[in-house]
Amino acid sequence: MNTFTRAGDGLEDEHPISIGRVLTAEDGEWEASPALRQLCALTEDGHLYVSEQHQMDHHVLGLIDRLERAEVKFETRLASMSEISALYQAQGSNNGTQSSASSTQRQKEVIALMSRAFKADASDIHFVVGHSITRILFRVHGLLKPAGEIPSSMGRELCSSLYNSMCDVSKEHFQPDISQDARVSREFVDQLGLFGARVSTRPLVDGPLMVLRLLTDDKSKQSMEELGFEPVQIQQVRRLCRLPYGVIFITGPTGSGKSKTLQININETARHTNGTRHILTVEDPPEYPLLANQSPKGSHETWEQAISNSMRLDPDILMYGEVRDLASAIAAFTGGLTGHLVLSTLHTNNAVASLQRLIDMGMDPSLVTDPALMTGIVNQSLLPVLCKECRKPAKEHLGELEEDLVQRLERLRINDAYLLGDGCTHCDGLGVVTRTAVAEVLVTTHGFMKAFRKNAGDARNYWVTKMGGITKTAHTLMKVRAGIVDPRMAETIVGPLDFDDYILEQSDVEKDPVATA
Questions:
Q1: Confidence (pTM)
Q2: Residue numbers of the chain with a pLDDT score lower than 50
Q3: Which residue of 59, 315, 443, 494 pairs with 280 in a disulfide if CB–CB is 3.0 to 4.6 A?
Q4: Are residues 431 and 386 in contact, defined by beta-carbon separation less than 8 angstroms?
Q5: What share of the chain is helix, strand, coil (3-state, %, to 5)?
């Protein structure tokens, strides 16, 4: 226990008060900024000591508000700034070594957890801090699996230690009641052989949710074939990447492998040009090693500023981590207009929808629909690949499927589908062994853009019927028929297996006035 000697009101004697730990101290459960620690201190015995002259300070009021919203019970006591300073000094003198050891121990525990996740091929670690229990989960091959449970007091300490002592933070300290983002410092990711790791947090009802994304360079997949693209799609993407100029977008939802696809194509382009083309990237943060000059976006610059600056550095090929808003979209298209080949990512559900997304952002439609400028779009998702040792034939387990899915499989004449098995030693009990891409590659033409300008809804059908486009749904059907993916997982990630037929039927109804009537 620490003791805090509180000066009496004009009395010569002093009265020691047992206060326990200072929770707002560095690495404490409610760690405060250095400036705030001059004004207040929350102690383990439930007292919040506040500087008498700073009762209405907005930082102090903010801390009080956070404590009240977290239903922390405390009693406010007024104190002088010197008395508050003495509290922290007592914490440092009595528990400094213990606190440092505790922080170091928590770091070791986080590193051990990250090592476990890395060895399990996990892409993310979830810390779900509940009222009394913190659940830890790994995302492996796209699926969440339990990785352990610890008391929430320890869970909060792990989250706090990870954010405060292991990250390059833009915010001053971990605050469990607000959303925060940070990157794990290089010294820690290097220990594990990771390329990087980033942290995101958000408050839940009972405590914070922290997700740690592990950025690894998957050496097992170094080609488009290994990612799961079809031969005709690979030829189309290579054609796009060998154009002298234009804008290419790799699109899809979060976690769909966009960065990996970019890496493979950037590296292939670098090897094809034998170093004669200057490839420059702007990333936030760099996620994979590339055969390019990789530059992180500065913490104090916007995407627009970073992209504008990159075009003054004599590049031939530019790769931007993501187009997020109108300003960055305009900057990316400016790169294409000025004779550069530009690759970037965008969050959309399918290739054709990417055009409308750019227009909705505020981009000039005449630029978006110029096939000499907007040269191509790749859209992709990742599906878990079934373990061949324990997968189950669907026809022997139809009772496990919903009736409408059985009807879709029958209508689509899928007779040899397989379902997720119970897990075995070959798949570490998961039932899946890796993930495979399902994708659609749109190489724009004047005919397609004309159809899009006339009716954006019909452009997808034009691409499929007139240009032989392979939709993501069609690609998924190939892999369901081959027994590679479970149709239930496929529908969860990509959508109904008969989606293409439904879209075509709806289009026919809209065109047929009799059917519409």
A1: 0.77
A2: 1-18, 96-101, 509, 511-517
A3: 315
A4: yes
A5: 40, 25, 35
